[in-house]
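Researcher: Here's the sequence for the chain we discussed earlier.
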Amino acid sequence: MHTTEILIIGGGVVGSSIAYHLARAGRGVHVIDRGEIAAEPSASWASAGGVRRQGRHRAEVALAIEASARWQTLERELDANLEYRRGGNLMLAESDADAQRLAAFVERQQRNGLSDVVFVDRHQVSELVPGIAPQVVAGSYCPGDGQADAVLTTRAFASAAERLGTKYLTATTCDSLVLDGRRITGARTSRGAIEAETTVLAAGAWSLKLAAAVALDLPLRVEALQMIRSTIAPPNLLTPVLSSLGRALSLKQLPSGAFLLGGGWLGDLADNGNRFRLRQQSVDGNWNQACAILPSVAEQHLERAWCGLEAMSSDNLPLIGRVPQLDGIVLATGFSGHGFALAPAVGRAVAELIEGKAVAEFDGIRPDRFLR
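Model: Thanks. This is the structure I predict for it:
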């Protein structure tokens, strides 16, 4: 039997950020993870690593703005290389009709407090991305956005948490939450029971089954989201992270020179939802979309494709906070493929919630919007 103040189930980027912020506040924390930290097939292992404010739902904007400021000094704070680059985020329009939609989109971003988001014309897009496809007519550009390496970041948060006293139990399966009346008192694991004053469920794709076993019916589904990496291209062909209206595409160039492709293309779940199988149709479709928007991608070859298992909520917004039915538990799950960038702010805010403080940033994403 282990006993701790706070048990965090899931050592991904969100769970490890929460652990770091709690440990920094002097709390006793245990983290369990079914594998190693940021290992296959977890979402933190497979994340595209976008650090984005542009295009956020208004319920996430405050967290995104806070996180963006934190990212600029996070490498120094965690004493680690995160491969963070503030190269901007550029959403493209490939028709006059899409350009009009993009102009309205820019106005909404500015109303949401993102004052640095600007509309750029074809000439300005070409200056930002030399070699962009000829059909691109305009863009929405957020220069303060960027990218980082998800695996390096997750492990940096975990290492920083451990230096502050957090105990990590990896290769440890959570078999079930422990329910006593209407209170969660910890978890049963492959290493025995762990008793905790507060349990944080941050297990991503594995949160759904654990919650269901204690009658928490979370509006989540698990998807295998695909990523592709190309062979090494010449450096500095692409600085901002690219997307385009009408295309399922996220495209960036890594420090190594390789292109990294995503955009929500799906693989198939396997092994009772614990593994994935690639879909060749998705691989081909994702690659062709990238080549159509940036022809220099077509000069490379596909080096590797993989999937990460993501917990997707019914409204594509995370579930963060306490739940009305049960005491002793906090949810931090359902990030729907775009939680990586928010992790520094989510970690701070969940730690403050557990400390008993009011966290207004969770008003639009609390679980009780579904679990009343």
